[in-house]
Protein: SnoaL-like domain-containing protein
Organism: Fodinicola feengrottensis
Amino acid sequence: MTLTAQDRTTITDLITMHGHLVDADGLNRIEEVFAQDAVHDLTDFGLGIRDLPTLREAAIALGDNQPVGHHVTNIVLSELPDGQIRVLPKGIGINADGTCGSVTYDDVVSRREQGWRITYRKVSVRKAVGVRSRADH
């Protein structure tokens, strides 16, 4: 399968829609982004592997500890041999107190009856790997 420009736009919109839904309390519409059988690896957050219903429960349980802004950037798409698409975006979460954090999403998206949907997502927390001074650049 060749990934068309329209597919790339649709998949990029799909990835960005996640933040809009989560930030707007739209968990009841999360099927617009994730397949019903999607798997979420939230091990870096101590939440293990989750399916869609338990992902909702975890998000609700986090309440005000959930970031108030989920932003994605640096979206890279690549075709997999089985016709699915691997998507590697960076994520920035802004918390209510103004602090922020960075993650890397490792997504697999598949074309379903209702269109492209995320079928797998691993969220990896960005950890500092060392601090370099300006002189090191």
Notes: The longest strand covers residues 100-112. The mean pLDDT is 89. Residues 5-25+39-127 form a domain with the Nuclear Transport Factor 2; Chain: A, fold (CATH 3.10.450.50).
